[in-house]
Amino acid sequence: LTVSTAGAVAAGAPGHAAARSGWGRPAAAPAAPTPGSPGIGDSYFPDYGNGGYDVDHYDVRLRYEPATDQLSGTTTILARATQDLSRFNLDFVLGVQSVKVDNYPATFAREGAHELVITAPRPIVSGQSLTIVVQYAGVPSQTRVDGWTGWTKTADGALAVNEPESAWWWYPSNDHPSDKATWDVSVSVPTGVEVVSNGVQPRPPLAEPGNRTRWGWRSATPGATYLAFLAIGQYDIVTDTAPNGQPVVNAYSTTLGALGPAARASIGRTAEIVDWESGIFGPYPFEAQGGVAAPANSISFALETQTRSVYGPGFWRRGSNTYVVVHENAHQWFGDSVSVADWSQIWLNEGFASYAEWLWSEEQGEGTAQEWFDFTYASYPADAEFWQVPPGNPGANNVFDGAVYDRGAMALHQLRLAVGDAAFFRILPAWTAAHRHGNGTIEQFQALAEQLSGKDLDALFTTWLFTKGRPELTQAASAAR
Ligand code: ARG
Ligand code: ZN
User: Fold this and answer.
1) Which site in 193, 237, 435, 477 is 20 to 30 Å from 81, CA atoms measured?
2) Ligand 1 atom 8: the closest Cα is on which residue?
3) Cβ(247)–Cβ(284) below 8 Å
4) Ligand 1 pocket: which of 162, 229, 301 to mutate (most atoms <8 Å of CB)?
5) Nearest atom in ligand 1 to 324's CA
């Protein structure tokens, strides 16, 4: 036990005086500490995250060579044990050189594709605070899991951006949205290379020997591990102040060429869009805003990385695109602040971010949400595969299926029709307030919607979220058209 945890030792736990007392009644044999579970209990991804501890903070200190994709460094994890532990796991795939737990060298072994099993030199007691220091190195683009890597090597650097697996390739973690933590990231790169990440820059980039520069970023609001990101390469960084006074940091890859202006005309409107969304969803939940335009030939998706979404180059091919900016920033409320407790609940992210696009269209005079509903409904014939994926439980292989997005938005429009605009626009900010910086479930959302509308919404949720097949349109839905 360390001094700092002495007060937290549970009665009867090993290390507590009573547990090893030799007087009075024979003390019950203390339960032996057990291994922390290799998964946190996700129904789709049972080995994601880990059991037995809870992380408060990650300090990620790295060194990166864009020329060779060599990544090395040290991550310090501040955590607390939630059970007596004989050992515990972290999710990680790079080569580990050493692990220390509370300053003592720990033994470690790899198990399966992405589990690092750590055995501390002394038993860990429930409630004990843990300082875990992991030293590592590797080439993330060459470190494959089932032939695949979530780390994208680009011509001028790299992107650590993916959902749900992305931390594995750059920092050891309890990789599940149900264990949120704050984090600091610092990366040393050759001078002239930019490093962009979440949150704010607590200090300017620091010069280091060997013509290197160390960049630093801080995320002071707790977040899910998959929402931490790194963009390393040649970027124009544009800073501003948002209407709410927060720092805005946008970054544009210099490799975009003819796509650059459309990227700027879109991501450049982030603060305006966040301001508009705040009026509908409630106060913006984080400390900074912004977006990153990823390089040409990099990712083919966008991701709502906390405070600073990352956009693949494909979104600018047909010109400016404010819809994707609306979508990713809506996720700052729906996904980032209110996060899924289980990956089966992905509708709480994608359905809401997609419906935000319909609201933006309505606002822009480019079609009402009702018109988008009708258009989407008509786009998929009753026998289309689309209707076979229920957004409320799409299956582990369909987490990002089009149905989660489009039928997911249709479900929210049906809710709006059922409860009326007044109740609907009370439910959205009530939801983001009730689970701010936490987790939520579809069941909890339905209960809140029923409470605020006074309506029984069971049939609506069952039909639109949990039943295969194209729902028949109700009287109410048709009447509203
Ligand atoms: N949450 C992201 C979005 O809506 C989707 C990410 C999909 N992930 C991927 N690797 N393609 O915008
Ligand atoms: Zn999305």
Assistant:
1) 435
2) 163
3) no
4) 301
5) 12
Pair type for strands 70-81 and 53-65: antiparallel
pLDDT digits (tens, 9 = 90+) for 336-361: 999 999 999 999 999 999 999 999 99
First to last CA, the chain: 67
The tokens describing 182, both together, are 């704050």
Ligand at shortest distance from the CA of 400: 1
Best of 226, 400, 405 to mutate for ligand 1, by most ligand atoms within 8 A of CB? 400
pLDDT in tens, 207-227: 999 999 999 999 999 999 999
Q: How far apart are CA 79 and CA 55, in angstroms?
A: 4
Share of the chain above pLDDT 70, in %: 92
Measure the CA–CA gap between 47 and 439, rounded to whole angstroms. 19
Report d(CA 148, CA 32) in Å as an integer: 39
Cis ω for the linkage preceding 283 (within 30 of 0): no
Atom 3 of ligand 1: nearest residue by CA position: 303
d(CA 340, CA 348): 7
Q: Which of the four pLDDT bands, split at 50, 70 and 90, describes residue 61?
A: very high
- pLDDT tens readout for residues 164-173: 999 999 999 9
Q: How far apart are CA 72 and CA 188, in angstroms?
A: 10
Contact 252, 263 (CB under 8 A): yes
Task: Say how many C-beta atoms besides its own lie within 10 A of residue 400's C-beta.
Answer: 15
CA distances in angstroms from 183 to 78, 224, 239, 248, 274, listed in the order given: 10, 10, 21, 19, 23
Token output for 466 = 């949990």
* pLDDT at residue 17 in the model: 35
Q: Are 66 and 193 in contact (CB under 8 A)?
A: yes
Instruction: Concatenate the DSSP letters of all residues of 425-475 into one string.
Output: HHHHHHHHHHTTTEEE-HHHHHHHHHHHH----HHHHHHHHH--SPPPPPH
The position carrying tokens 């790079």 is 94
